[in-house]
Amino acid sequence: MKKIISIEKRKxxxxxxxxxxxxxxxxxxYIKHHLKPGLELTDEDFLAFMEDHMWMTYLDxxxxxxxxxxxxxxxxxxxIEKGAKEGLVKQLIFxxxxxxxxxxxxYVKTYIELKKxxxxxxxxxxxxxxxxxxxxxxxxxxxxxxEKQVLYTLISKKIQSETKKSKKQTLIKLKETYLKKGFNxxxxxxxxxxxxxxxxxxxKALLEKDYQKIKQKLMKHYEGYDLKKLLKEKLYQKGxxxxxxxxxMREDE
Length: 253
Description:
- The chain has helices spanning 27-32, 43-65, 72-81, 86-98, 104-115, 121-130, 135-142, 147-161, 167-180, 185-195, 203-218, 224-237, 242-252, and strands at 2-9, 14-18, 22-25, 40-41.
- It is α+β, with helices and mostly antiparallel strands.
- The chain has a 4-stranded antiparallel β-sheet with strand order 3-2-1-4.
- Helix 8 (147-161) crosses helix 10 (185-195).
- The longest helix has 23 residues, at 43-65.
- The N and C termini lie far apart (103 Å).
């Protein structure tokens, strides 16, 4: 037998004290089991009370956590880490799915809308896989949206804003950036070629600036042929055309 020693009203429920343990009990459980000071519960009654108490406790934890969208796997992991038993976790997950608190398909669609301008399909797919999303959902939604249209918007805007690097450098940088973000190589290369005319940098002015900067640095250690050779190499690595490099070097002689 388990005897209730005292009950105190609290903001979220009732603090129910037995002889050797105390529980913060939700109103639903308090009312269902007709709890009151002095009540003695049989082992069977106490077990039923504890089942309802644990259900409400972990359900409340889970629903509070769902203020931020979660996948089924993330919720399962959270509940287990909080101490819920496997059987209870399964019941809670079923309950949350049944009442649409958890919906992996909705999660995927929302995640894509939020992230598609920041991450490519490959990166999105990888992250969703880690979150427990099925291959079927990833295949249907992650690789189903118009990646080319997203990239077109990103590249056309970015290529026009980059004016501190040569055209070639800009294209190389953008290619590396979008590949790292998980976008498709062929689409990236195709759009960079298609949109390269949008580059608005003044390459002649940039070349002049880099020429003088690199020359002054190299002159501290080199002269003559070695200076010209290294200067030409450094400028070529920055993406400037060889003919333009030769021209500015001739003008400087």
